[in-house]
Structure formats: structure tokens, C-alpha cells
Amino acid sequence: MNALELLLNRRSVSRLVTPAPAGNELQHILAAGMRAPDHGALRPWHFVVMQGEGIDKFSQLLEKSAIEGNLGSEVAEKAKNAPYRAPMIITVIAKVVEHPKVPAWEQVVAAGCAVQAMQMAAVAQGFGGIWRSGSWTDDPIVRSGLGCEENDKIVGFLYLGTPELKAPTKVSTPDLTNFVSYF
Ligand SMILES: Cc1cc2nc3c(=O)[nH]c(=O)nc-3n(C[C@H](O)[C@H](O)[C@H](O)COP(=O)(O)O)c2cc1C
């Protein structure tokens, strides 16, 4: 699959099973994230790779946040189970710093580009993934459990693994009419 085919046909995959990327595969994914466009070469991101016990700990964090937020047992159960939807999750945290030329929003966008780059690097190697977020990204228990500092912003949880179903739905050619103008 060449780069253009990947970009035009990529799909997110929510049903992910083992194997997760490992060894060089994972290194390529992380290196692709590090190559995200980055104004000022700040590298304003941090990647937290979770699998196995890491996913168990993440599950406990989500459950705790639901319980302490009094969200009810059904939500707590759902939160507890959510991380097990993939064998690997990479949490991407934007590490936002004060900078005279690079405002906070640019740093958050750069971290978002890192998520997309990692997802595409996973797909290019035969894996699948989905970028998820939810209210957990701003939850104090989740943030502190994942080592966030005050100005950090969790931009997403990248769920990765092997697509359970072999043929993801095909994408149709997009109608650009309302999305593009030429000046
Ligand atoms: C910042 C961000 C957060 C997202 N959060 C979620 C989420 O929490 N749950 C979800 O199902 N999809 C979420 N998505 C959308 C999926 O990643 C995916 O793009 C969507 O399911 C459409 O599938 P496609 O990528 O194959 O078009 C998010 C996307 C972005 C960019």
C-alpha cells in the first residue's frame, strides 16, 4: 500500500484483537509520532504505551473516576471494560509550554498530528486502530494517574491491534463541494 492509497482509503477499526504491534513495529509507530509537524521543534507530546498490566491499570483508573464521580454502576462497568477493546493503547498527551512564537493551540494540534501519524504507521504495517477520547481526557483522576502536569492536554487514546474482521468497509469518493473553495 503506497502513501496515497493509505490516506485515501484508511478506515478506523474499533474491533481489535491480538497481536498488538511489537518490537520494530511499535518502534516505527512511535518514530512516526515523533515525526509529526512541530513548530519550533518543541516536541510538545508524550506517548504512554499501555498493554497487559498497563491496560489493567488504565481500566482501574477509568472505573475509579466513574465511581468517584458518582456516575452509577452501569457507567463504572462500561468504563472498566473500555480499555479491553484493544490489546494496546497509546495515550497521547500534549505537553503545552509557554512559547513566544508557538501558541498552545499549535502545540495541541501538533500532538494530534502525532496521533494520526501513529495510526497510519500502524495501518501501513498491517495493524488497525482508532483514535478515541471522551470526557476521560479531562478527568483529574485519569490525568493524574497518567502523570499529566497542569498544562498538559490529553489529545487522545489511540487503540491499536489487529483488525478482528479482515475487510474494513470501503470508503466512497468524498464530495468536496461544501468543503473546498479556490481563492
Ligand atoms: C480527537 C478525536 C477524538 C475522537 N474520539 C472518539 C471517541 O471517543 N469514540 C469514537 O468512537 N470515535 C472517536 N473519534 C472518531 C474515530 O477516531 C474515527 O475517526 C471515526 O470512528 C470514523 O471512522 P473513520 O476514521 O474510519 O472514518 C475521534 C476522532 C478524533 C479526531
From TrEMBL:
Family: Belongs to the nitroreductase family.
GO MF annotation terms: oxidoreductase activity
Pfam families: Nitroreductase
Cofactor note text: Binds 1 FMN per subunit.
Annotated binding of FMN, by residue: 10-12, 35, 39, 131-133
Protein name as catalogued: Putative NAD(P)H nitroreductase
Biological source species: Xenorhabdus mauleonii
Cofactor: FMN
Residue span(s) of domain Nitroreductase: 8-161
Its EC number(s): 1.-.-.-
Top-level taxon of origin: Bacteria
UniProt entry keywords in alphabetical sequence: Flavoprotein, FMN, NAD, NADP, Oxidoreductase
Signal peptide: none
